[in-house]
Predict the structure.
Amino acid sequence: MAYWLMKSEPDVFGIDDLAARPNQTEPWDGVRNYQARNFMRAMKIGDQIFFYHSNTATPGIVGIAEVVREAYPDHTAWNPDSKYYDPASTPNKPRWDMVDVRYVRHLKRIIPLTELKGLEALADMPLVRKGNRLSVMPVSEAHWNLILALEDKPRT
DNA sequence: GCCAACGTTGGC
DNA sequence: GCCAACGTTGGC
């Protein structure tokens, strides 16, 4: 089993929105970056995901989700009315994929980006590197466990 | 709202 | 294939 981190803007679709969906499940559509898409293609059912809130007052990891359907074509790319429309993608030759993710739980507290940046052990995590804009990224098992342990610790 | 960093596009 | 211009991300 692998671990991932996926970013979303809470004003658009936050973890509370995921928890409120039927079956607490939602297709992760709208990814229009090749690197992020390729990571989604590598996801397997049961993989665990850190749900990250970006573009908000306190960006950080807020909860956990899991993969319940592996990569399949993102049909929003074919819809001219969608803000994710990409005329280069067609049903015969889909360019973009998505996965379905299901809510698992909120973390006991938000783990803010500022706190993650302060941890030497996470220095090589793409998330904390300057200028990183990847919206989907792998998380090593060591990092996953380290970050999970933070939710029971008071902020340092 | 600003703007640094980065990915993509398209002219040549 | 290069690279300038442009658009987007996302922290602050």
Q: What stands out?
A: Residues 7, 9, 32, 54-56, 59, 113, 131-133, 135 of chain A lie near DNA strand C (CB under 10 Å from a C1'). The mean pLDDT of chain A is 93.
